[in-house]
Amino acid sequence: MKHLIALVDDDRNILISLEELLKKEEFEIHTYSDGQSALIGMSRYPPELAVIDIKMPKMDGYELFKKIREKTEIPVIFLTSKDQEADRLKGLMHGVDSYVTKSGNFSKEILIETIKNTLNRKNIDKENSEKKQIIILGNLRLDCLRYECEWKEKLLLEPLTTTEFKIIRELVERPGIVKSRDRLMEIAYRDELDVDDRTIDSHIKRIRKKFRKIDPEFKSINTLYGSGYKWK
């Protein structure tokens, strides 16, 4: 599957030459001549990476980048006709992923390699993020993508609810640390205000019951009366 890249530049010649070059590298390219059309097009056809010219009329690259960041975290590479430290610093402070100067000795090959390296980093970050979604602690294994819980290499006979899973995850991410009922309520219910703190006690009771269906000796959740709960 080809990577979709958005090119945004008010210089038509730059758009045409970069589009031809990147298509030869097996990228799918969508081009835009201004920030507004880029926002509309990118909302319909979300790219994996955007290459944006800084100096554009009406909406410059910085403003476009800010609007993109309100909706997505895709990598962004800035193109500029200036090789000035102030421009580079401003771009990096905005949080762009990379910066390529297109004036003077502008090398399209450098841009291609920058795009490839940025996409590779994105894929590595995604893989690392997915690895973090698996939590293994002693006999416990949590798959935070599938919301599955294993104990002693067996799936619980009765799956945890989403709320119960959130509570377990909060406890095991810092084993031995006491988590108050208020903290567990915050994790489990977020902005729901109509929840009694004793609701957490009921959840813990059901969680223990589900574990004890496959391990009657399950005692990994400790109650600290007046304080909360911890995973030991």
Description:
There is one protein chain. With 232 residues, this protein is of the alpha/beta class. The chain folds into two domains: 4-131, Rossmann fold (3-Layer(aba) Sandwich), CATH 3.40.50.2300; 134-231, Winged helix-like DNA-binding domain superfamily/Winged helix DNA-binding domain (Arc Repressor Mutant, subunit A, Orthogonal Bundle), CATH 1.10.10.10. The chain is 44% helix and 20% strand. The chain is built from eight helices and eleven strands. Strands 2-1-3-4-5 form a five-stranded parallel sheet, with helices on both faces. A hairpin with a 2-residue loop joins strand 8 and strand 9. Helix 2 (35-44) runs parallel beside helix 3, helix 6 (162-172) crosses helix 7 (181-189) and helix 6 (162-172) crosses helix 8 (198-212). The longest helix is centred in the middle third of the chain and has 24 residues, at 108-131. The protein is elongated. The mean pLDDT is 87.
Features:
Arc Repressor Mutant, subunit A, 232 residues, alpha/beta, 4-stranded antiparallel β-sheet, 44% helix
Brief description of this entry?
This protein is of the alpha/beta class and 232 residues long. It has helices at residues 12-24, 35-44, 61-69, 85-94, 108-131, 162-172, 181-189, 198-212, and strands at 4-8, 28-32, 49-53, 76-80, 98-101, 134-137, 140-143, 148-151, 154-155, 221-224, 228-231. The two termini are 46 Å apart.
